[in-house]
Design goal:
The protein is of the alpha/beta class. Helices cover about 20% and strands about 30% of the residues.
Length: about 350
């Protein structure tokens, strides 16, 4: 089997962070989401991966490289415009050939990986396997309606009146029959070739499409709240370790990872949390579900359930910062005005002076 990762979106729902960084490269628990997808595919025994790229392609190619760090080979497939997931499959035909493949959206995070799903599909006679999960807002997703025996009755993209609460997770498995489907369908009202229409074509034309209902967590990291939730879920799965320095008066619990070169001075850190390489934390409280990336300084402050990206500085802030995404090269400091509650999504190179 081969792997196909779709990594061409602009990430407009994550502005301002994604003005200056591809959304798939924003880290969750100090590792870019796209890296986690590559690892999940490699862990499933797949060593040839194609990545469909768009406007952010140069940054993705520079960051991901040739795949040698994971022991995989990576081929980049340019998509000239966001013309739909089925269009991405269509332009990847030369790379995929007639092999079975797994297609994974590059900004999705799923509990437990996909190794068992890949093994299940590889040993089956199915033409496709799709992953579904129950969601509270199915109108925002591709939705599957199953019949009485648990097989697919119909698929609808972002229906106004969803027939079920089963959304398509961004993980799909196909054999070569998918190319018949993507050649047969027409663009939707959005001007895109929808993968739901292609899968519906397979169902209508009596191909074997198996619906797998995933019961664990799954997160599309498209919005700031989703990114924070994904960060919290992944932090709970980490095996903590201490590679940096912690002084004698600091209190760091057993669910905290402190990476190489980090310094913890007179501080309290309650996990699950992670402190990145060469980061300095001094006279500070870091609460659960917080990821501090590399080369950050946090001093005389409190922060909880946040993601802070590299080369940022948070100092002398009188209120606890909570539920926030803070970009690269950001400075957050204290001014003399009366303190007020903080909640923010700050882009790279921001400057914010706290009242």
């Amino acid at each position: 089997m081969k792997g196909l990762i779709l990594s061409g979106g602009k990430g407009t729902r994550l502005y301002p962070l994604t003005y200056t960084r591809a959304k798939q490269l924003i880290p969750v628990a100090n590792k870019p989401v796209l890296f986690r997808v590559v690892e999940a595919i490699h862990d499933a025994g797949i060593n040839e991966i194609g990545i469909v790229i768009g406007d952010t392609g140069p940054e993705i190619k520079e960051t991901v490289g040739d795949g040698s760090r994971w022991g995989v080979g990576i081929t980049y497939i340019p998509q000239e415009a966001p013309l739909g997931l089925a269009h991405a499959v269509k332009i990847s035909r030369d790379f995929l050939g007639d092999e079975r493949f797994v297609m994974f959206l590059g900004d999705n995070v799923i509990e437990g990986g996909i190794s068992s799903l890949i093994k299940q599909f590889a040993s089956s006679e199915w033409n496709s396997q799709i992953v579904l999960t129950e969601v509270p807002d199915p109108e925002h997703f591709g939705v599957a309606e199953l019949n009485g025996d648990g097989q697919i009755k119909q698929l609808i993209e972002k229906p106004k009146q969803p027939p079920s609460n089963l959304a398509l997770v961004g993980i799909y498995m196909f054999d070569h029959h998918i190319f018949e489907a993507v050649d047969a369908i027409k663009p939707s009202w959005r001007g895109e070739l929808e993968i739901t229409d292609a899968i519906q074509w397979l169902v209508t034309n009596q191909r074997k499409v198996f619906p797998y209902v995933h019961n664990g967590w799954w997160i599309d990291t498209g919005k700031p709240t989703d990114m924070l939730e994904a960060n919290a879920c992944v932090l709970e799965e980490l095996t903590p370790y201490i590679a940096g320095e912690i002084d004698a008066v600091s209190v760091v619990d057993g669910r905290v990872t402190v990476e190489t070169g980090a310094q913890i001075i007179n501080s309290v850190i309650r996990g699950p949390a992670i402190v990145g390489e060469n980061t300095r934390v001094e006279n500070t409280y870091i609460g659960p579900f917080t990821s501090i990336y590399h080369d950050v300084v946090i001093k005389n402050s409190e922060i909880e359930r946040c993601i802070v990206l590299e080369h940022s500085c948070i100092a002398d802030v009188p209120l606890r910062i909570q539920d926030s995404l803070i970009g690269r090269h950001v400075t957050v400091k204290h001014s003399t005005r009366k303190p007020k509650t903080l909640k923010m999504n700050l882009g790279d190179h921001s400057r914010m002076w706290i009242p």
